[in-house]
Amino acid sequence: MLGVVENHSLPRTAAFFDLDKTVIAKSSTLTFSKSFYQGGLINRRAALRTAYAQFVFRMGGMDHDQMERMREYLSALCRGWNVQQVKDLVAETLHDLIDPIIYDEAASLIEEHHTAGRDVVIVSTSGAEVVEPIGELLGADRVIATRMVVGDDGCFTGEVEYYAYGPTKAEAIKELAESEGYDLDRCYAYSDSATDLPMLRAVGHPHAVNPDRALRREALASGWPILDFHRPVRLKQRLPAFSVPPRPVLVAAAAIGAAAATAGLVWYASRRRSMPV
Questions:
Q1: Catalytic machinery residues
Q2: Predicted structure pTM score
Q3: Among candidate residues 72, 196, 65, 52, the one with its CA nearest the CA of residue 125
Q4: pLDDT by residue (tens digit) across 92-129?
Q5: I need a labelling partner for 174 at 20 to 30 A (CA). Which of 52, 185, 247, 250 fits?
Q6: Distances in Å between the alpha carbon of 19 and those of 11, 77, 206, 233?
Q7: CA distance 60 to 223
């Protein structure tokens, strides 16, 4: 238990949460692949590949090179996708797809940080069309996510403006801390991946959650707490705190959206190319 209520005469503080495999048990973007298939954004073959990638992601995640190949491919993949259609599909299926895979332990931590007077910020490589509604569901105060250029026609242009990954997550946290007055030495951060080491090192209280091998090594060497989250639970089955409408989420960095939902296709294709024949 965190237990200490913030002294509001001191600078403000926040708790920064990675999303996938830290707050929820799966990839936030890959989870919507069925919805995007039914909505006509991806075909059956891509939907099957993303389902396979979801399985592999749960087993071991994606390394840095795979994530970089995904980023490069997304700029071309999402060109012409209608942003409002993406938002509508996410809204229609959010509770059915995301609510059942939220870790009970993460939901408890969010409650505890709010009780202690800290803001809760979701920091994710996925886009605002996916991350912002999840943040609202969780009652987060702010969201940091990737953003992509949207044209006058309301569709993705295929150009990436900001990619919330690795060091850029830490940079966004520092910028938000400056604008909001957070004391980063007294802030908390949670992630499962070594790619988020810059984010974890940016705060005074880093935590490794369900860590990959590299992050576990670093956490052990640095004396960081290692947390095991393994109990997904629907929020409505929890304490009354989650039975009220969640607070609005302020988006600190927005919008790659549904394009990332086909991340599994990119990962799968790159894996197939690298496999021996």
A1: 18, 20
A2: 0.79
A3: 196
A4: 989 888 999 999 999 999 999 999 999 999 999 888 88
A5: 247
A6: 26, 23, 15, 15
A7: 23
